[in-house]
Give the backbone structure.
Amino acid sequence: MAKKSKKVSIGVDKLIYGCAAVLGLVALFLIFAPAAHMEYGLLGGTFSGTELVFGLEDSFVFSFMNFLTYLLLVAGLVLVVLRLCGVVKGKLFDLLAACLLIAAGVLFFLVATLSVPVKDSLTATVKANGTINLLVGPILAGIFSLLGGAAVLCYSLLGRK
């Protein structure tokens, strides 16, 4: 008599939450990618997400709203990982995780707008004739965060009975 092989099956919920966790983690690591390009006068520069959030002594100061973007992402990621591990259950945690990931995804597209230039003549120069353009880091982070939040939200509302 042949032995029956045990099927190892991963539930759809684990797959959805695993994908959302990976997308959130990738979005979190995109803080090190180029986030904005600022042109002012004859000068210009490309800045990473850490420089826009925590500041750079000659260009930007600390921006709480950009920091809030990453706080929302981390909070949503923690809830997704807790749900993946089975520590928390229920639609309330799923909806909260989805809302946090979606809010972070929306704020990622505002990173260049929410950055705070240094409070000297640079601010006046940037406002007068300078531009701050969004680069690849926050765009991809926003897309990944929105996809993770949408996956959790759709599965929470439609997938479980």
